[in-house]
Structures are given as structure tokens and as C-alpha cells.
Amino acid sequence: MSEAIRRAGGLNSHPVAYSAEEDLLWGTMVSKLNAMHPRVASSRYLQAKNRLPLPADGAPRIDDLGQRLNNSTGFRLLPVDGLTPVADFYGRFAADIFSTALYLRCPSRPHYSPEPDMLHELVGHVVMLSDPLFADLYRLFGEATNNATCAQDLQAISQVFWFTMETGLVQEDGQAKAYGAALLSSTGELDKLGTYPVEKFSIQEMIESDYDISTYQGKLFIAQSVEEMASEVRSFLTHV
Ligand SMILES: [Fe+2]
């Protein structure tokens, strides 16, 4: 076990107890997101959520959730304090490790969190990581990060991760549906989904586009299918 993992309390450990107020905030937001998802989430996400349901009556235990995720795709959860350096966050995917924040967003601003909190990590990323196709893509992001030899490549990987795994959309039955974690975990983002500029899926455009994680989105990319997105992302990550 690495020092960072030991300090964090270990894989799939549960070092935090949540207050009644935090359990209430978690339950309220998960219930609101559960009500929104059937209309705006991709079918892939809805299937993943059935596979890895999250409690709506209080914050989940990380050890239990981590074990259920591990049974699905082999991924494990590493609880961390604060922000993880981006190369470590992505790089750990190659070892089937997802670093997850344990704090909950400010109750006065429940619809959106500028930093990744537990709602974002679990409702967004961890649910998606129970899908084998997405788990494989996360692993590839990790391998590409670990193999990157310059800051420019790391930046390109980061941009593509942002515009796919965080804010990606896919066409389903003529409608734009979300598969990205940042969208799926924010009632504020999901409310505004129809108002964002949406562009055709393009890895090159993603690399050349600016983004700001501290506010609502300025631009989204839509793929014709999850398979198209996965094929393009795989190709990019194996050649970057
Ligand atoms: Fe994220």
C-alpha cells in the first residue's frame, strides 16, 4: 500500500461520519437528481444506476459502495482530503483506483459545486464506473496520463476527459442525453442543459476549447452514440 493510500485510510475505507444535516443534504439532492435523470440522463447512465443504486436517505458508506463497485468492474475507491493533483487523479485510474472526495457541498448552494464533492464523485463518476465500457475508458485515461511525457499532452488528456467523462452528451432518440459526471451530479447544470451551445463530437475541438470548472458550462460536445465516443476516445488515448 502506497503512503498516499495509507494516509487516506486505505482503499474502500470509510473514515468519515456524517452529521444529520449532511445526511439530509445528501438525501435531498439525490432525490432531486433521481427525479431528473430519467428525462436527461443517457440510457447507459440509467442502467449503471440500476446496477449501483445510491441511498436517498443519507450519505452512503464508502466501504460498502466501494465493495459493490469492485464487484462490478474491479475499480476501488480511495477516500482523499481536498483536491488530488490532476496527474495523480487520472494516473490512479490505470490501477483501478478512483480518488473520491468525502466532503459535501455547501448547503446554501446545493445545486452546483465548483469543486468535486461527494455528490459529484459518487452520483457522477462512481455510478458510471460500474459500467465496463466506461471503466475501461477511465483505465485508458490513466495509462495515457502515466505515459505522458510533456505538460502539453497532459493538458490535452485533461481537456478530453473534461468534455467527455465530465460534461459529455450523447444523441438518443433525437435528444441530447448526459453521460458526463459533472452534468449528472448537478441539478443546476441539468436544469440549464437545453440552453448550452452544443457542438458535434470532435477530439481536436475539445483540445482547442477552453473550459472553466468553477462555473456552469459554456460549451458541450455531443456524440452520435456512446460507441462512437468510446472509439474516438480510445483512438486518441492510445496515440497521444
Ligand atoms: Fe469530476
Automatic annotation (TrEMBL):
Q: Name one GO biological process term.
A: aromatic amino acid metabolic process
Where, by residue number, does Fe cation bind? 120, 125, 166
Which UniProt keywords are present, listed alphabetically?
Answer: Iron, Metal-binding, Monooxygenase, Oxidoreductase
Instruction: Tell me which residues make up the Biopterin-dependent aromatic amino acid hydroxylase family profile domain.
Output: 1-240
GO MF annotation: an example? iron ion binding
Required co-factor(s) are: Fe(2+)
State a single Pfam family of this protein. Biopterin_H
Q: Give the similarity note.
A: Belongs to the biopterin-dependent aromatic amino acid hydroxylase family.
Q: Per its record, how is this protein called by name?
A: Biopterin-dependent aromatic amino acid hydroxylase family profile domain-containing protein
**Annotated organism of origin:** Streptomyces noursei
